[in-house]
Amino acid sequence: MAVVYQRPKALVDIPTHYCPGCTHGIIHKLVAETIDELAIEGRTIGIAPVGCAVMAYDYFACDMVEAAHGRAPAIATGIKRSLPDSVVFTYQGDGDLAAIGTAETVHSATRGENITIIFVNNGIYGMTGGQMAPTTLPGMVTQTTPYGRDVSTAGFPVRVCEMLSTLSGVAYAERVAVNNVPNIRKAKAAIKKAFTCQIEKKGFSIVEILSTCPTNWGLTPLEALKWLEENMIPYYPLGVYADRTEKGVRGE
Amino acid sequence: MKNILLAGFGGQGVLFAGKIMATAGLFEDQYVSWLPSYGPEMRGGTANCSVCLSEEPIGSPLVLEPDVLVVMNLPSYDKFIDAVVPGGIAIIDSSLVNKRCERTDIKCFYVPATQLADEKGLKGLSNIILLGKTLRETQFAQSETVERAIEKCVPPRKQNLVQANLEAFRLGMSQQD
Amino acid sequence: MKQLASNEKVLMKGNEALAEAAIQAGCRHFFGYPITPQTEVAAYMAKRMPKIGGTYLQAESEVAAINMVYGAAAAGVRAMTSSSSPGISLKTEGISYLAGADLPALIVNVQRGSPGLGGIQPSQADYWQATKAPGHGDLHILVFAPSTIQEMVDMVFDAFELADTYRMPAMILADGMLGQMMEPISFPEKQVKQFDKFSWASCGHQGKRSHNVVNSLYLKPEQLEQMIQDRFQRYAEIQEKHTQWEEYLVEDADLVVVAYGATSRIVRSAINTARNQDYKVGMIRPKTLWPYPTKAIQQAAQHVKGFLSVEMSMGQMVDDVRLAVNGKVPVSFFGHTGGVVPTPAEVLAEIKKLLGGNQ
């Protein structure tokens, strides 16, 4: 009988700790499929964040490094500069990447580091129990914005792809979502393009993935997918924000 | 054992003159140390450096009570002239320091180094003229060794300046009191 | 820039000599951020690394720099960073993670006056930080305290080798005086020991082993405790085998001065003068601050009448002297804070005051 679907080899065969309905599982699978298809597991090093995906180091079958909160892009830089032929990706959430690690994100991008960032944006701090993230939408209720995010005191959500797209070191920046099958397929294509961009040494690549957090949003998994579509996508439009993959950021 | 303090404005080359002294000491197998003052000003502020030349390992490299003081401006003169140990020596650029020392327990030598440098087409080398005078009065090393040290310390990209430095050094060496 | 031949004596600034020593010890990855008075380390690396196929990277912050070191160390290469006191505070996060993930790396602290911005002149006020709390958690790092530029060069080799042997961070704790001064040095003709790190580093498994994880997170308390206990066993071995100190005229001394780094040079000058005046004074000079030469001090406490700790701080190492002496004889302190360097005359006066009629 022909195999039509199986677990990617780059995912370790153990259960994950993610909540029911969480989209981290889908995103892990897309990254692992990409590693399989490009046949790069042996030279890939992943960096796990602090946040819900902290234990991603147990799930990916490539070598992994656990980072301090927000520091993954600096660690990725250290690894890539030491092993230029390796493939290095970080897997980070919104608090990790766009709050505590903003400097590391922006500067690894502007240096045009040949690394790939998988940025999971679900607008909330999941692991610590649902506090405001830099990407929490205006009016959105969280544990630390109990009356809804008030932009007059808490400021405005960060649009990461838009911001990074202005930097010359960014070869590829795309925002995707994993709320339905067509979008998941687009997300996969974006991830594969980002890894390919790195392998071809074109510069910094980031894929921002709009994701759900049913537990902390207080919704069922299905409601969460719908909420993502109706609230997240309008504020964070999907699409390609930077594509300098043809010539590469250094024009080589 | 000689504890030397060189002081002046940043940019006058006190650190460089000190480095030549230390290098000459090294060439003659003395124990040597060179310690600069460092501060937020890059140019124009006061700068000084401590040089120790010794037959013994050097304890504190910081010269607070110099045997030999080389001063290239008035603020440094005012600050350090009283610190010179009795029996010590002060070499003073008299073009920039318009005072005469009243101490009788030290020997002072007044060299119009900046003026001499300008007259002899050695602009910017008053520090090396004073270095020459310092050697004449203290014999901290052989003069050939100091000349070798000058050749060593002038950076490769400025090799064309070696001759001018040697000229300035010899001019300083020839200064009678 | 020409490659320096071994054994050739050259006059070099402490910061530059340290950088060259690191290169000769096989370090090809330097991540830094400018701060006075250590900037020449970075500048030297920026000049040399591109010519020898190494990495010099000016990070966006000290936080990023230490995490780049963490990444490079995780990938299995010799890596280092350098900074001065305020910058080291920013690196303490990364140092804790390095220790927690059992990663070797070299951190240089060319100390300046503190707290806060403090000043830029030499200081030894980071002793507590280096030896007691270089990061959060139950941990130690190797701390080397050179007193001459030559010793600083030699210690760079030792620091890298011990860091790799025990898989832990090492620090060179220097100060602005050692960083800025020049002395003649020669580089040791030393075969640099190679370490095979493939078995634990995250450098890509190449299909030859299962995946490695470089990590400091252990959510099960028993597992975390086990990890730390194992680490402390290694610490005990290091204390046993690698504590370094110098004893100077201790044998017949009535008073032993304890001093390290640049301050120990000043103390040595004072002791020489005191000995000429028949004061029986000696010095124990810790060369490693962790592990600390506790036993040497304990032994001296058997026969001396007192100890004096001299530091460029308000008195930090004196705590460790007191712990070692354990009340047996009096322990005094003399020091100045950052920038105000103690003079031999002041130390001599302190020695005379303490020895009084013991002459």
- Major sheet of chain C: order of its strands? 3-2-4-5-7-6-13
CATH domain topology of chain B: Pyruvate-ferredoxin Oxidoreductase, domain 3
Number of strands of chain B: 6
End-to-end CA span of chain B = 24 Å
Q: Helix share of residues of chain C? A: 40-55%
Flag low-confidence runs of chain B. Answer: none
Mean pLDDT metric of chain B? 94
**Strands side by side in the biggest sheet of chain B:** 2-3-1-4-5-6
Q: Output the structural class of chain B.
A: alpha/beta
Oligomer type: heterotrimer
Radius of gyration of chain B: 15 Å
Sequence of secondary-structure elements of chain C: EHEHEHEHEHEHEHEEHEEHEEHEHEH
What is the CATH superfamily of the largest domain in chain C? Answer: Thiamin diphosphate (ThDP)-binding fold, Pyr/PP domains
Q: Assign the CATH architecture of the largest domain in chain C.
A: 3-Layer(aba) Sandwich
Structural class of the secondary structure composition of chain C? alpha/beta
Please characterize this protein's 3D structure:
- The complex is a heterotrimer of chains A (252), B (177) and C (359).
- By secondary structure, chain A is of the alpha/beta class.
- Chain A has a single domain (24-243), classed as Rossmann fold (3-Layer(aba) Sandwich).
- Chain A contains ten helices and nine strands.
- The model of chain A has no long low-confidence stretch (mean pLDDT 97).
- Chain B is α/β, with parallel strands linked by helices.
- Chain B has one domain: Pyruvate-ferredoxin Oxidoreductase, domain 3.
- In chain B, strand 4, helix 2 and strand 5 (89-93) form a beta-alpha-beta unit.
- The radius of gyration of chain B is 15 Å and the shape is globular.
- Chain C is an alpha/beta fold and 359 residues long.
- In chain C, 40% of the residues lie in helices and 19% in strands.
- Chain C is built from twelve helices and 15 strands.
- In chain C, helix 11 links the parallel strand 14 (306-311) and strand 15.
- Classes of the chains: A alpha/beta (252), B alpha/beta (177), C alpha/beta (359).
- Strand 2 (63-66) of chain A pairs parallel with strand 9 of chain C.
Provide a brief overview of the structure.
Chain A has 252 residues and is of the alpha/beta class. Chain A has helices at 24-38, 56-59, 72-82, 94-100, 102-110, 151-154, 160-165, 181-199, 214-217, 221-235, and strands spanning 44-48, 63-66, 87-93, 116-121, 124-125, 131-132, 170-177, 204-210, 239-243. Chain A is built from 10 helices and 9 strands.
